[in-house]
Amino acid sequence: MRFPEEVTDDVTKRLRRVEGQVRGVQQMIEDGRSCQDIVTQLSAIKSAMDRVNYRLFSAGMRHCVIDDDSDMNPEELEKLFVKLG
Question: In Å, what is the CA distance from 8 to each residue of 35, 47, 48?
Answer without folding.
Answer: 34, 19, 15
